[in-house]
C-alpha cells in the first residue's frame, strides 16, 4: 500500500490544476486534500474530523504557504515540533518567491521549496518531479494510475 | 613686528611718578592733611614763602576731595605777584601748585569759545576722522602751538596720525606712525589719570623738592596728579631731538581706555595760562565722548549690515533642501560678511570654494590643522607665521578666518584675505629708537620719515567681523540641527514607505502570479482536451491568451527582481569576472542551441569588488541582450573586454547586433523602456534598468554606445575596493 500525498491548498483553481498535474505525473499514491492549515494539522495529528483515520504519515506534504487560519509556515513549525511528524518530508509549494519566505521555510526545516511556475507545462513538470522524488521509494505498480480524491 | 623694536621694559622701569622735582615754571607746596607744611619746591627759596603761599589758600582746601585730581583754587596775591593756584589731595597729603597768573579774559575765556564754536561743529562731524581734524584745528587755535597732531593708538600701541595742523617750518607727520615705545606703559597710565600735560620748555632745569624734616626723601612724593611734575630726561631729550621745545598732550580716553592723544609741539618755549589748559582738557573730554558715540554708531551700523548679510546667507540656505555647501553658490553676502576675497566650505573630505582661495588640497590640510585647535572661531592675519605650509598660498591668502560648525565632524567655513603689502611711514626709524650710553637711555635722534614695508599679512580681521561670523556659525548650527531632524523624519518616513512597498511586493508576488498561472494553466488544459474540436482561429486566440498570461507572469517576476535589487543589502567580495563570463556563456550556449555565436573574450578580464550574485544578474542581462539582439545576424559576434579608468574597473560587452540610435541612449536604462517592438525581440524592458541599479548601488557607472544595424556596446565600471564608498545599504536597511 502506497502512502498518500497530503496536499494543502486553499485556492480552488490551484487545487484543480495541481491535481491534474499529479494525475498527469502518473503517481499511484492516494492524494489527500485539505483546504487550510488547521485541517492539515488535524489530519496529521489525527484530530477533529480526522481523529478516526488510519495511522501513519503521508509520503510527503505539499504545503501552500499562504493559507487561511494557520499559514504554511506555522503548519511546518508545528510538524517539526512534533516528534512523530518530524522526519516527514514537507515541500512548500507556493506562489511566493520572497526571500524572507524561502529563508524562513528553510530555517523551519522544509525539505524543498518550489515556486509554482506560471506556465502549465512547467508546472506539471515541477509537480511530477516532486512526486517522483518524494515517492521514489515506492515504485508505482503497473496499472495503478489513478490518484484518489477524498476532499473537494 | 615687535621684534623690530627695542625692549620697552628698559624705559618702562623709569620711576616717572616720583621724580622728586618739578618744572621751573611754577611752585609747589606740600601740606599734611592737618595743614602742616611738609615739603616745598626749592624755587620758593625758603619754607616761609612756601608756607605763606599755602596759608593764602588754606581756607579753600576743604574743596579738595581725595582721588579727584587737581582742582582750581583761585588766584592769590603774593608780594605783589598774582598766582593761579591748583591743588589736589593724594592720600594724607595736600599738593598745591602755583603758577604766574594771566589776566582773566572774562567771557572771552577759551572755555566759552569752545562751547560756542567747537561743540556745534563737533556734533555735526560724521566720522572719527572729521572729529580729529576739527580737534586739531581747534587746539591749534586755542593754544597757538606750531604743530598739532591728533593720533590714535592701534592694537599694538603704535600711534597713527589722523589729523595735523602745522605752521610753516614744521615737519609734517600726517599719515605717519609713532612707535609704541615713544610712550612707555607707565606714561600711558599717567595719561589716563591726568588728561593734560604741558611742558613749556624742554630746556628747563628741574627744581628739586625739599622736605621740612631733614630725613625727608623727595622721591617718596607721588606726583602722578601734579601738572608741574618734572619729566623724564629721556623724554626731554626726545623733545629736543625732535626740535621741540614746548609740548602739550591731551588724552583721548574712550571707554576707559587711552584711545589716542592730541599732541602739540612748538619750536619755541610756550606757556599756556590755566584757563586755556582747562579749555584744552575740556576739549579732550568732549572729543572723547564724540569719538565714543561715533564709534558706537559706526559699529551699530556695521553690525546691522553684517546681520543683514548673515540673514541673506541663512535664508538662502534655509530656503531649500540645501546643505552648507550651497553657501558658496551665492558668494556675495558670504564674502562681504568677512570682507574676504575668497571663501571655502569644508565638510570632512569635501571642499567647495568661491573667489580667490588656495587649492582644495591645501584648504583640506589647513582645515584639518584648524579643526585640531578645537576652537569655534579662529583667525590669523599672518597665516604663514603660524602655519608654515600657508607660505605656499602666496598673496592670495595671507590671512584666514575660520568657524567650526560641528564638534563631531570636520565642518568649517573659511574666509581668505589676500596679502596686503603695507607701507608704514614712521616718524623716524623705530629700530633706532633707544640707545644706551653712559648708563642712561637715549631716545632716537631722528624723526625724519622712515618707510617700512610689511609683507605676509592681510588686513586685520576686526572684532566686529569675528562676532559676525560667530553669529553666522550659530545660525548654521541651527540649520544643521534642523536638517538633521528633518533627515531623521524623512528616514522614518522612508522606512514606513519601504515597509508598505515590501508588503505590496509580497502581495504582487503571491496574488498576481496566481491568476496568471491559472489563465495559462486552464488555457493549456482546454487546448489539450478540446483542441480537436476547436477551430484553428479559436486555437490561435487561445494561444494569444496563454502568451499574454505568460508575459504578464514574467513581467511580475522581473518587477519583483528589480525591486528586490534595490532593497537587499550588497555583500561585496572579490569576483573573478572571467569565471562568471565563462559560466554565463555556457548557459547561453545551452539555451541557444540552434545558433552559433562567436564569443570573443579579450583577456585579462578584471576581478571586481562586487556582490557576486548581483554582478551575475547584471552580466546575464548584458550578455543576454547581446545574444538576443544578434539573433538576426548570420554571424553573431559578442566581444567581452576589460576596461579600467580613474573611476574603477569593469567590462564592456560589444555586439554586432541590431544596435540602436545614440539619441535614445538616455532612455535605454529606464524601467520598461523598449526600443524595439515586442514581436521583434522578447523581453520585459527591465533588464538594463536592473543593470543600472546594480552598478549604481555599487557606486559605479554604466554607459552604452550604439549605431542602428551596426551593433551596440554596453559597459560599466565599479569603484576599486579602496575607493568603494558605503552605498551598499539598501534604503530599507538604513
UniProtKB/TrEMBL annotation, chain A:
The modification 4-aspartylphosphate is found at residue 64. PROSITE patterns: RESPONSE_REGULATORY. InterPro entries: CheY-like_superfamily, Sig_transdc_resp-reg_receiver, TCS_response_regulator. Keywords: Phosphoprotein. Residues 4-131 form the Response regulatory domain. SUPFAM superfamilies: CheY-like. Gene3D superfamilies: 3.40.50.2300. This is Response regulator.
TrEMBL record, chain B:
GO terms for biological process: detection of visible light; osmosensory signaling via phosphorelay pathway; regulation of DNA-templated transcription. This is histidine kinase. Residues 711-734 are annotated as: Disordered. Its main location: membrane. It is found in: Cell inner membrane. InterPro entries: BphY/WalK/GraS-like, GAF, GAF-like_dom_sf, HATPase_C_sf, HATPase_dom, His_kinase_dom, HisK_dim/P_dom, HisK_dim/P_sf. Its EC number is 2.7.13.3. It comes from the Bacteria. In the N-terminal section; belongs to the phytochrome family. It is a multi-pass membrane protein. SUPFAM superfamilies: ATPase domain of HSP90 chaperone/DNA topoisomerase II/histidine kinase, GAF domain-like, Homodimeric domain of signal transducing histidine kinase, PYP-like sensor domain (PAS domain). One of its GO terms (molecular function) is photoreceptor activity. Residues 127-285 form the Phytochrome chromophore attachment site domain. GO terms for cellular component: plasma membrane. It catalyses: ATP + protein L-histidine = ADP + protein N-phospho-L-histidine. Residues 720-734 have a biased composition (Basic and acidic residues). The keyword Zinc-finger does not apply. Residues 507-722 form the Histidine kinase domain. Keywords: Chromophore, Kinase, Phosphoprotein, Photoreceptor protein, Receptor, Sensory transduction, Transferase.
Amino acid at each position: 500500500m502506497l502512502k498518500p500525498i497530503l496536499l494543502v491548498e486553499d485556492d480552488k483553481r490551484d487545487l484543480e490544476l495541481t491535481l491534474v498535474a499529479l494525475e498527469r505525473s502518473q503517481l499511484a499514491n492516494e492524494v489527500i486534500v485539505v483546504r487550510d492549515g488547521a485541517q492539515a494539522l488535524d489530519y496529521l495529528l489525527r484530530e477533529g474530523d480526522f481523529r478516526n483515520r488510519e495511522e501513519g504519515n503521508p509520503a510527503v506534504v505539499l504545503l501552500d504557504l499562504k493559507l487561511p487560519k494557520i499559514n504554511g509556515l506555522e503548519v511546518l513549525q508545528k510538524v517539526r515540533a512534533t516528534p512523530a511528524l518530524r522526519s516527514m518530508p514537507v515541500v512548500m509549494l507556493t506562489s511566493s518567491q520572497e526571500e524572507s519566505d524561502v529563508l524562513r521555510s528553510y530555517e523551519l526545516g522544509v525539505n524543498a521549496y518550489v515556486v509554482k511556475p506560471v506556465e502549465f507545462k512547467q508546472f506539471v513538470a515541477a509537480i511530477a518531479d516532486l512526486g517522483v522524488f518524494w515517492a521514489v521509494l515506492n515504485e508505482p505498480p503497473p496499472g495503478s494510475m489513478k490518484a484518489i480524491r477524498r476532499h473537494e | 613686528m615687535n621684534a623690530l623694536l627695542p625692549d620697552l621694559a628698559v624705559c618702562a622701569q623709569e620711576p616717572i611718578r616720583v621724580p622728586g622735582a618739578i618744572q621751573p615754571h611754577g611752585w609747589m607746596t606740600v601740606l599734611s592733611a592737618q595743614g602742616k607744611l611738609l615739603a616745598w619746591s626749592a624755587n620758593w627759596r625758603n619754607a616761609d614763602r612756601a608756607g605763606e603761599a599755602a596759608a593764602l589758600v588754606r581756607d579753600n582746601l576743604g574743596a579738595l576731595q581725595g582721588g579727584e585730581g587737581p582742582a582750581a583754587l583761585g588766584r592769590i596775591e603774593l608780594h605783589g605777584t598774582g598766582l593761579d593756584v591748583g591743588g589736589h589731595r593724594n592720600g594724607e597729603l595736600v599738593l598745591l601748585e602755583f603758577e604766574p597768573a594771566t589776566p582773566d579774559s572774562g567771557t572771552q575765556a577759551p572755555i566759552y569759545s569752545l562751547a560756542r564754536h567747537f561743540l556745534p561743529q563737533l556734533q555735526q562731524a560724521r566720522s572719527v576722522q572729521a572729529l580729529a581734524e576739527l580737534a586739531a584745528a581747534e587746539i591749534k587755535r586755542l593754544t597757538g602751538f606750531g604743530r598739532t597732531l591728533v593720533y590714535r593708538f592701534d592694537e599694538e600701541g603704535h600711534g597713527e596720525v589722523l589729523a595735523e595742523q602745522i605752521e610753516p617750518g614744521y615737519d609734517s607727520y600726517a599719515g605717519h606712525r609713532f612707535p609704541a615705545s615713544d610712550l612707555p606703559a607707565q606714561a600711558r597710565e599717567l595719561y589716563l589719570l591726568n588728561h593734560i600735560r604741558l611742558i613749556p620748555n624742554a630746556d628747563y632745569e628741574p627744581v628739586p623738592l625739599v622736605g621740612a624734616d631733614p630725613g625727608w626723601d623727595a622721591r617718596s612724593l607721588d606726583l602722578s596728579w601734579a601738572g608741574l611734575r618734572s619729566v623724564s630726561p629721556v623724554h626731554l631729550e626726545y623733545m629736543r631731538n625732535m626740535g621741540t621745545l614746548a609740548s602739550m598732550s591731551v588724552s583721548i580716553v574712550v571707554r576707559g581706555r587711552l584711545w589716542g592723544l592730541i599732541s602739540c609741539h612748538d619750536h619755541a618755549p610756550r606757556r599756556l595760562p590755566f584757563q586755556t589748559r582747562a579749555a584744552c582738557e575740556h576739549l579732550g573730554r568732549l572729543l572723547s565722548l564724540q569719538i565714543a558715540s561715533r564709534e558706537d554708531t559706526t559699529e551699530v551700523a556695521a553690525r546691522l549690515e553684517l546681520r543683514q548679510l548673515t540673514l541673506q546667507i541663512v535664508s538662502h540656505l534655509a530656503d531649500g533642501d540645501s546643505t552648507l555647501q550651497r553657501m558658496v553658490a551665492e558668494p556675495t553676502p558670504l564674502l562681504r560678511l568677512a570682507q574676504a576675497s575668497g571663501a571655502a566650505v569644508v565638510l570632512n573630505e569635501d571642499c567647495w570654494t568661491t573667489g580667490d582661495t588656495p587649492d582644495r588640497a591645501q584648504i583640506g590640510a589647513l582645515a584639518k590643522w584648524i579643526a585640531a585647535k578645537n576652537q569655534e572661531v579662529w583667525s590669523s592675519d599672518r597665516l604663514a607665521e603660524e602655519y608654515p605650509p600657508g607660505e605656499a598660498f602666496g598673496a592670495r591668502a595671507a590671512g584666514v578666518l575660520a568657524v567650526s560648525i560641528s564638534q563631531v565632524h570636520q565642518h568649517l567655513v573659511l574666509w581668505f584675505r589676500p596679502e596686503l603689502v603695507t607701507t608704514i611711514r614712521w616718524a623716524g626709524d623705530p629700530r633706532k629708537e633707544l640707545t644706551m650710553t653712559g648708563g642712561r637711555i637715549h631716545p632716537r635722534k631722528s624723526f625724519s620719515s622712515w618707510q617700512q614695508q610689511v609683507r605676509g599679512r592681510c588686513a586685520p580681521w576686526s572684532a566686529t567681523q569675528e562676532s559676525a561670523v560667530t553669529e553666522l556659525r550659530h545660525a548654521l548650527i541651527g540649520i544643521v540641527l534642523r536638517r538633521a531632524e528633518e533627515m531623521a523624519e524623512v528616514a522614518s518616513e522612508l522606512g514606513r514607505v519601504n515597509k508598505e512597498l515590501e508588503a505590496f511586493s509580497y502581495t504582487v508576488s503571491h496574488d498576481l502570479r496566481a491568476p496568471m498561472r491559472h489563465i495559462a494553466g486552464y488555457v493549456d488544459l482546454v487546448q489539450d482536451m478540446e483542441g480537436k474540436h476547436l477551430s484553428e482561429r479559436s486555437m490561435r486566440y487561445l494561444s494569444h491568451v496563454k502568451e499574454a498570461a505568460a508575459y504578464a507572469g514574467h513581467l511580475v517576476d522581473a518587477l519583483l527582481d528589480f525591486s528586490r535589487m534595490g532593497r537587499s543589502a550588497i555583500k561585496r567580495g572579490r569576483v573573478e569576472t572571467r569565471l562568471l563570463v565563462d559560466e554565463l556563456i555556457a548557459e547561453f550556449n545551452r539555451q541557444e542551441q540552434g545558433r552559433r555565436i562567436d564569443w570573443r573574450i579579450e583577456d585579462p578580464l578584471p576581478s571586481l569588488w562586487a556582490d557576486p550574485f548581483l554582478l551575475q544578474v547584471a552580466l546575464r542581462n548584458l550578455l543576454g541582450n547581446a545574444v538576443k539582439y544578434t539573433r538576426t545576424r548570420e554571424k553573431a559576434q559578442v566581444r567581452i573586454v576589460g576596461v579600467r579608468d580613474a573611476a574603477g574597473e569593469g567590462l564592456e560587452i560589444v555586439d554586432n547586433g541590431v544596435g540602436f540610435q545614440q539619441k535614445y541612449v538616455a532612455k535605454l536604462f529606464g524601467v520598461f523602456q523598449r526600443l524595439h517592438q515586442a514581436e521583434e525581440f522578447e523581453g520585459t524592458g527591465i533588464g538594463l534598468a536592473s543593470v543600472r541599479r546594480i552598478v549604481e548601488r555599487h557606486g559605479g557607472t554604466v554607459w552604452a554606445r550604439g549605431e542602428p544595424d551596426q551593433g551596440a556596446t554596453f559597459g560599466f565600471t565599479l569603484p576599486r575596493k579602496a575607493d568603494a564608498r558605503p552605498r551598499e545599504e539598501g534604503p530599507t536597511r538604513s
